[in-house]
Amino acid sequence: MTTDPKLPVENGPAAPAPPAPTDNSAWLLNPPPPAAHAQSGLQLWLHRTSVFLFVLISAIAGVLLLILPWTPEWTDNYLLLTYPWLRTLISTGFFRGLCSGLGLLDIWIGFWEALHYHDHQ
């Protein structure tokens, strides 16, 4: 008859259980490794660069959406010559205001990200 190696041996002496730690002395002798979310130098600079590019693109797109709908180039462009109904739609004040509002929102999001940025170290 074969026995399962996972089952305890019935006839042999029982192995003593390891003592349960009662204090933090084991932690003091063997501190845990650094946090898993700590980033290397390259990862940190890539993260900083991506945040900078996000803020820059948000600010540029926001300024364009804020100013461009109120210029003559908004309705007098070559792409709208074949679609007069679309030209009429985007020349309304409501649509221009909607685009400018999205521009303000885009600027606000970009600056919010810039002000609330912090390194994860």
Summarize the SSE layout with pairings.
Elements: H1 25-29, H2 41-67, H3 84-90, H4 93-115
Structural class by sheet pairing and helices? mainly alpha
Instruction: Give the overall form.
Output: elongated
Strand content range:
under 5%
Uncertain segments: none
Biggest sheet details: none
Q: Mean pLDDT, rounded to whole units?
A: 81
> Strand-and-helix sequence, N→C?
HHHH
Determine the N-to-C terminus distance.
58 Å
Q: Taking Cα atoms only, what radius of gyration do you get, to the nearest Å?
A: 32 Å
Number of helical regions = 4
Helix content: 40-55%
Tell me the number of strands: 0
Question: What distinguishing features does this structure have?
Answer:
121 residues, mainly alpha, 4 helices, 51% helix, 0% strand, elongated
Q: Could you explain how this protein is built, in words?
A:
- With 121 residues, the chain is mainly α.
- It has a domain at 41-115.
- Helices cover 51% and strands 0% of the residues.
- The chain has helices at 25-29, 41-67, 84-90, 93-115.
- The model has no long low-confidence stretch (mean pLDDT 81).
Outline of the structure:
With 121 residues, the protein is an all-alpha fold. It is built from four helices and no strands.
